[in-house]
Amino acid sequence: MARYGEVPADNPILADIKAKREGLYEFRLYPQLWSSPELAAYYKGRKWQAVPFTTLSPALPASSGIYMFVVGPYCGNLKDHSYIFYVGKATNIRKRYAEYLKEKAGKGANPREQIVLFLNDFEGYLHFHYTLVPKVELTHAEALLKDNLTPVANTQLELKGRLTA
Asked: Which residues have C-beta within 8 Å of that of residue 113, sequence separation ≥ 6?
Protein backbone atom coordinates (compact mmCIF):
# COMPACT_ATOMS: atom_id res chain seq x y z
CA MET A 1 0.00 0.00 0.00
CA ALA A 2 1.19 3.50 -0.82
CA ARG A 3 1.90 5.84 2.05
CA TYR A 4 0.05 9.15 2.28
CA GLY A 5 1.42 11.43 -0.42
CA GLU A 6 2.52 8.60 -2.70
CA VAL A 7 0.66 7.75 -5.89
CA PRO A 8 -0.29 4.04 -6.00
CA ALA A 9 0.95 2.33 -9.15
CA ASP A 10 -1.57 -0.54 -8.92
CA ASN A 11 -4.72 1.64 -9.14
CA PRO A 12 -4.72 3.93 -12.23
CA ILE A 13 -7.98 5.73 -11.36
CA LEU A 14 -6.76 6.58 -7.88
CA ALA A 15 -3.33 7.57 -9.21
CA ASP A 16 -4.91 9.99 -11.69
CA ILE A 17 -7.18 11.53 -9.07
CA LYS A 18 -4.37 11.86 -6.52
CA ALA A 19 -2.04 13.48 -9.02
CA LYS A 20 -4.64 16.23 -9.53
CA ARG A 21 -5.71 16.83 -5.95
CA GLU A 22 -3.20 15.50 -3.45
CA GLY A 23 -4.36 16.36 0.05
CA LEU A 24 -6.84 19.07 -0.98
CA TYR A 25 -9.90 19.11 1.28
CA GLU A 26 -11.87 22.31 1.67
CA PHE A 27 -14.59 22.49 4.26
CA ARG A 28 -16.89 25.02 5.84
CA LEU A 29 -18.49 24.90 9.26
CA TYR A 30 -21.89 26.44 10.00
CA PRO A 31 -22.42 26.11 13.78
CA GLN A 32 -25.70 28.04 13.55
CA LEU A 33 -27.17 25.04 11.69
CA TRP A 34 -26.00 22.44 14.22
CA SER A 35 -28.66 23.36 16.76
CA SER A 36 -31.58 22.76 14.41
CA PRO A 37 -34.56 21.75 16.58
CA GLU A 38 -35.83 19.48 13.80
CA LEU A 39 -32.49 17.66 13.60
CA ALA A 40 -32.35 17.16 17.36
CA ALA A 41 -35.96 15.99 17.58
CA TYR A 42 -35.66 13.52 14.71
CA TYR A 43 -32.46 11.86 15.88
CA LYS A 44 -33.15 11.91 19.62
CA GLY A 45 -33.09 8.37 20.95
CA ARG A 46 -31.78 6.76 17.77
CA LYS A 47 -29.00 4.29 18.32
CA TRP A 48 -25.89 4.76 16.19
CA GLN A 49 -23.46 1.95 15.52
CA ALA A 50 -19.88 2.48 14.35
CA VAL A 51 -17.40 0.12 12.71
CA PRO A 52 -13.92 0.82 11.34
CA PHE A 53 -13.97 1.09 7.55
CA THR A 54 -11.66 -1.71 6.46
CA THR A 55 -11.30 -4.00 3.46
CA LEU A 56 -13.42 -6.63 5.20
CA SER A 57 -17.19 -6.27 5.36
CA PRO A 58 -18.38 -6.41 8.97
CA ALA A 59 -21.67 -7.99 10.00
CA LEU A 60 -24.01 -5.16 9.06
CA PRO A 61 -27.80 -5.23 8.78
CA ALA A 62 -29.48 -5.55 5.39
CA SER A 63 -31.92 -2.85 6.53
CA SER A 64 -32.47 0.72 5.39
CA GLY A 65 -30.72 3.52 7.19
CA ILE A 66 -28.55 6.60 7.27
CA TYR A 67 -24.78 6.36 7.40
CA MET A 68 -21.84 8.68 7.92
CA PHE A 69 -18.16 8.37 7.19
CA VAL A 70 -16.32 9.89 10.13
CA VAL A 71 -12.59 10.67 10.12
CA GLY A 72 -10.76 10.96 13.39
CA PRO A 73 -7.62 10.04 15.29
CA TYR A 74 -9.41 7.43 17.43
CA CYS A 75 -6.45 7.29 19.74
CA GLY A 76 -6.23 8.24 23.37
CA ASN A 77 -10.04 8.49 23.51
CA LEU A 78 -10.06 11.55 21.23
CA LYS A 79 -13.34 10.55 19.59
CA ASP A 80 -14.71 14.05 20.04
CA HIS A 81 -11.98 15.24 17.65
CA SER A 82 -13.52 13.56 14.65
CA TYR A 83 -14.99 15.01 11.50
CA ILE A 84 -18.11 13.90 9.64
CA PHE A 85 -16.88 13.63 6.08
CA TYR A 86 -19.94 12.25 4.28
CA VAL A 87 -23.59 11.50 5.00
CA GLY A 88 -25.69 9.15 2.89
CA LYS A 89 -28.79 6.99 2.82
CA ALA A 90 -29.14 3.34 1.91
CA THR A 91 -31.97 0.89 1.43
CA ASN A 92 -29.50 -1.82 2.48
CA ILE A 93 -26.66 -0.78 4.81
CA ARG A 94 -24.66 -4.00 4.23
CA LYS A 95 -24.83 -3.70 0.43
CA ARG A 96 -23.92 0.01 0.52
CA TYR A 97 -20.81 -0.68 2.62
CA ALA A 98 -19.69 -3.29 0.06
CA GLU A 99 -20.21 -0.77 -2.77
CA TYR A 100 -17.89 1.65 -0.98
CA LEU A 101 -15.21 -1.02 -0.78
CA LYS A 102 -15.38 -1.32 -4.58
CA GLU A 103 -15.33 2.44 -5.02
CA LYS A 104 -12.28 2.71 -2.76
CA ALA A 105 -10.47 0.38 -5.17
CA GLY A 106 -11.49 2.59 -8.13
CA LYS A 107 -13.98 -0.01 -9.35
CA GLY A 108 -17.69 0.15 -9.97
CA ALA A 109 -19.80 1.94 -12.54
CA ASN A 110 -18.81 5.53 -11.76
CA PRO A 111 -16.18 6.10 -9.05
CA ARG A 112 -16.61 9.58 -7.54
CA GLU A 113 -13.39 11.53 -7.25
CA GLN A 114 -13.95 13.03 -3.78
CA ILE A 115 -15.12 9.71 -2.34
CA VAL A 116 -12.23 7.69 -3.81
CA LEU A 117 -9.80 10.23 -2.36
CA PHE A 118 -11.12 10.28 1.18
CA LEU A 119 -11.62 6.51 1.38
CA ASN A 120 -7.94 6.06 0.53
CA ASP A 121 -6.36 9.11 2.18
CA PHE A 122 -7.86 8.36 5.59
CA GLU A 123 -7.32 4.61 5.70
CA GLY A 124 -7.01 3.55 9.32
CA TYR A 125 -8.77 6.69 10.55
CA LEU A 126 -12.14 6.20 8.90
CA HIS A 127 -15.25 4.84 10.60
CA PHE A 128 -18.64 3.94 9.17
CA HIS A 129 -21.48 5.08 11.45
CA TYR A 130 -25.07 4.07 10.80
CA THR A 131 -28.54 4.08 12.28
CA LEU A 132 -31.61 2.28 11.01
CA VAL A 133 -34.34 4.43 9.45
CA PRO A 134 -37.53 3.30 7.69
CA LYS A 135 -37.28 3.52 3.88
CA VAL A 136 -40.06 6.12 3.68
CA GLU A 137 -38.03 8.47 5.90
CA LEU A 138 -34.61 8.08 4.24
CA THR A 139 -34.62 11.26 2.14
CA HIS A 140 -35.77 13.43 5.04
CA ALA A 141 -33.39 11.79 7.53
CA GLU A 142 -30.42 12.25 5.20
CA ALA A 143 -31.28 15.89 4.45
CA LEU A 144 -31.47 16.74 8.15
CA LEU A 145 -27.91 15.55 8.72
CA LYS A 146 -26.17 16.67 5.55
CA ASP A 147 -27.87 20.07 5.34
CA ASN A 148 -27.12 20.92 8.97
CA LEU A 149 -23.71 19.30 9.44
CA THR A 150 -22.46 20.18 5.91
CA PRO A 151 -19.96 17.32 5.41
CA VAL A 152 -17.17 18.17 2.97
CA ALA A 153 -17.87 15.30 0.56
CA ASN A 154 -21.60 16.05 0.29
CA THR A 155 -21.87 18.48 -2.59
CA GLN A 156 -25.65 18.91 -2.80
CA LEU A 157 -26.64 20.90 0.27
CA GLU A 158 -29.76 22.99 0.91
CA LEU A 159 -28.26 26.05 2.62
CA LYS A 160 -29.85 28.91 0.74
CA GLY A 161 -31.84 31.20 3.05
CA ARG A 162 -30.81 29.24 6.15
CA LEU A 163 -27.55 31.00 7.02
CA THR A 164 -27.48 34.16 9.09
CA ALA A 165 -24.63 36.53 9.75
From this structure: 17, 21
